[in-house]
Amino acid sequence: MVGKAAKVNGSNDKGSSNADGNGGVRARQAFAVVNSGGGAQDPGVDGAPASNAGSDCGGMEFSREDVEALLNDRPKAKSKFNYKERCENMSDYIKRLRLCIKWFQEVEVGYVQELGQLRVALESAEQRLDEIEFSSKRKEEELSCIVDELSNNLAFAQEKLAKEEADKVVAVDSLAKEKEGRLASEKALDSVSADLAKAQEDLSSSSQRLATINDMYKRLQEYNASLQEYNCKLQLDLSTASENLKRSENEKLAFVEDLSSAKGGYNSIQEQFASLKVSHDKASKQKEVLSCEVSRLRVDLNKVRDERDRHLTQTEVLTEEVTKYKEYTGRSAAELGTLMIKSNELEAKCLSQSEQIKVLREKLTITERRLKDCDLSAMELRTESEEQKEVISHLQSRLSEAEFKVVEGEKMRKKLHNTVLDLKGNVRVLCRVRPLLPEDNGSGGKILSYPTSMDTQGRGIELLLNGQKHSFLFDKVFTPEASQEDVFLEMSQLVQSAIDGYKVCVFAYGQTGSGKTYTMLGRPGHADEKGLIPRSLEQIFQTTQSLKSQGWNYEMQGSILEIYNETIRDLLPSSQLSIDSSQTENSTAKQHLIKHDANGNTSVSNLTVVDIHSTKEVSYLLNHAARSRSVGKTQMNEESSRSHFVFALRISGVNMNTEQRVQGVLNLIDLAGSERLSKSGSTGDRLKETQAINKSLSSLSDVFFSLAKKEDHVPFRNSNLTYLLQPCLGGNAKTLMFVNISPDSSSIGESLSSLRFAARVNACEIGVPRRQTNTRTPDSRLSFG
Ligand SMILES: Nc1ncnc2c1ncn2[C@@H]1O[C@H](COP(=O)(O)OP(=O)(O)OP(=O)(O)O)[C@@H](O)[C@H]1O
Question: Where on the tree of life does the source sit, at the highest rank (predicted)?
Answer without folding.
Answer: Eukaryota
